[in-house]
Amino acid sequence: MERPRIRRACLLWAALALPALTADRLGLNEPRAVGQQVAGLAVLAAAVAGARRYPLGAFGLTAVLGLAAAPALFTVSYCPALGVFALLLGLRADRVRPAVAVFGAVGCLGTARIALLGVDPAPEWVVLTGTLLFGCVFPWLGGRYWRQGRELAEAGWTRAARLEGEQRIAEERARLRERARIAQDMHDSLGHELSLIALRAGALQVAPDLPDHHRTAAADLRAAAADATDRLHRIIGVLREEDEPLSLTPPGESVEQLVARAAESGLPVRWETARSSPEPGGVAERVLYRVVREALTNAARHAPGAEVTVAAAEEADGTTVTVTSGRGSVAVGAASRTPTHSGGTGLRTLSAAVTAVGGDFEAGSYGDGFRVRAYVPEQALASTPPPTPAPYTAPFTQARRRVALALVGAAGAGVVLVGGGFAWYAYTETHSVLPPAAYAELRLGASAHDLAHVLPDRTVRDAPVERAPAPPPQDSDCRYYRASGELLVSVDHFRLCFDDEQRLVAKDVIPRAGLSRRPSPDEEFAR
């Protein structure tokens, strides 16, 4: 055991031993022999030593010590220790059933002792029950509540650390997503522009009035643009995730303007429309723009010189756009039909994007060429809303609520029980008081009938007979009365003994705790 732990154990033992040593001298307990006091201190020391590893055993030792000192379990000497070890039991023990079993065993053992050795069983059993509730169960529940509070705090810190880690992961994923979005935009926009540059270079190459050396330079430019497009696709493809959704950043121009710019670059494209334009900058407009741009890029790369038709038609609740290209030097959409550098990822990305907003996408051979057809609903959603997280339920909340309800229930039962017990105790103690002046007037030889008007209605059932100055007369019937109506303190008692004929044969004063003998009321009256 470490030194700080030893010091704490010694301080705890000293604090618990203090009432055990002083209660007898202050008159709060019945006087006990020195051997009993030493044995009690030794039991407390053993309980303190094992309280950390065996809290249930420490509480059991203290409860047995209390029952040995008083059948009703309540003693000023050991009740503080009983409450402390019950608190430690709730704080350190995980299981509930062993503690409840020990409480029940203590109650049964105390009830048996009261039935066998008790003088007035009813009030003693009330005191036993109240001591179990307020001196054992309440501190135990308080310890469990304290323990669950600490565990809840630890769980909260653990959850905070986990949420912080999840936040870092979410931020990293957001950065990766943004990087993929930028890569996608670069691939789509730069790839489209490079395809148009290659298309212009091809037109210059076949111009009839161009000198041969310029024609060669145009061919080189066209080849360089095509190679740059392929390299761009390979490099950017490393940054893109396979299932990354299509970026829907506003393009800055409409679909019609995109087609017009492609026509100015030399692409033989025709724009046909029979619809009203969707909301500018809306999701539907952005999806259609990406579909048309990808289709024109594929036509310029893989079918140069082929005529392209872009047709948009208004449906009942959306817009359908169709991009049809004829046969060129390379079949349109070859990237999706044969293994090339592009790998067909553009068309797959388009299909995923259109499907994500509730539309339909088709791409495939059409006659001698290739056709891309996409239907986008007018009220397309920007993205699927994230699922609403389930409300967080803190751990141990239900357990803490049950402990709190148990505390309230035990408090209510204890208040009723102890209140009733104290009322009965006060009634019996105050109705068994024989005033000292009346005691002084009692004369030996008087009959019980003649003294009935002087004697109280009740007698003391738990009189301190061990403090009597002399044993009672043989074959006599002794009655005990209190000299004062003070409660919860030790007071003098009077002993009146009657013979078989119910005549008073002896009267004695039993001094209160802490006094060996006091002058009798007869002596004081004589003075």
TrEMBL record:
Residues 285-379 form the Histidine kinase/HSP90-like ATPase domain. It catalyses: ATP + protein L-histidine = ADP + protein N-phospho-L-histidine. It is an enzyme of class 2 (transferase). Its EC number is 2.7.13.3. GO terms for molecular function: ATP binding; phosphorelay sensor kinase activity; protein dimerization activity. The keyword Transcription does not apply. GO terms for cellular component: membrane. Keywords: ATP-binding, Kinase, Membrane, Nucleotide-binding, Phosphoprotein, Transferase, Transmembrane, Transmembrane helix, Two-component regulatory system. The chain crosses the membrane at residues 63-88, 100-119, 125-142, 403-427. Residues 178-243 form the Signal transduction histidine kinase subgroup 3 dimerisation and phosphoacceptor domain. PANTHER family: NITRATE/NITRITE SENSOR PROTEIN NARX-RELATED, NITRATE_NITRITE SENSOR PROTEIN NARQ. This is histidine kinase.
